[in-house]
Amino acid sequence: MIIHAAGTNSLAAMSRMRNLRDRVPDAYWTMTVALLALAAIPPFSGFFSKEAVLGVAEHVVTGHTEHAPAAAGWIVLVAGLLTAVLTAAYAMRLWLLAFRGRGTEAPDHGKEPLTMTVVLWVLAAPSLALGGFAFRLLPDWFDGRDLGPTLTTSVLGTGVALVGGIVTYGAWRHTTVLAARVPLGAVAAHPEGDAAQVEAEAIATHEPAYGDIAYAPDPADPGRLLLGPLHRHAAAGFHLDAVYTALFVRPVQAGASLVRFLDREVVETYVRGAGALPRWLGAAVRRAQTGNVQTYVSALLAGTVVLAVAAVLVATGA
Asked: Is the pLDDT of residue 194 over 70?
């Protein structure tokens, strides 16, 4: 819905639009709820799911169980807290760039249809209430152990999430001045070139201008300030897709090409060869069917002579 309202899927473009949130108020509020749940801020559902993981990790670290070593608990605990920081940071970045843009007025495409807005609220409602019910009901469904939040991990998890959001907000406040200073066309096409280049020219000459922030450097993106040289690799998923393609996709495609070659050039060759002999015999018989009675009688006479000669030879023992 936000892409439909903005006319683009580029956060760089949305960060240069004013009042986009007023164009799609339903999407604004439901996405706010979704991002708060994603960042695991209480009392949204994501808080309780994150707290369940951190609580178990703390339980292992403090030696209250013999089923797992303390080192495993520390790994899960540290990884969970680091994930909480990063998740809150990119959720805050998305929210700020999409809904707190500055620049020209966002395009007005009219009110969104009810069929689009109702679905958003249907999905947002569980994020508001499901988490609070889950930690009370789920223990009865499983082994009866308490899944309620603990004070230590609740404070730690929520604290690091708030730190990630606040740091990202500070970086956005620092970089948002650049969004008003540098036109999008110049950012997308020539970040170090003429700032007067229009956006239409950038789109016409550089396809990645929209939708791929890694190939359209935007100095107003707080993620670039926070990640520095790691931003390009982070935007590309640290090239895990390329690794997956090299390890799995290309070998599977090579195997499929080999199977296709064997099927077409080997199996089909044998099939075609098996049908060639009957086809040749059929062609020979078809040529014998001339419709000439004299030819048929001559062939019958020749066959009779051959049979008679063969009978005489057999009778004489020759």
From this structure: no
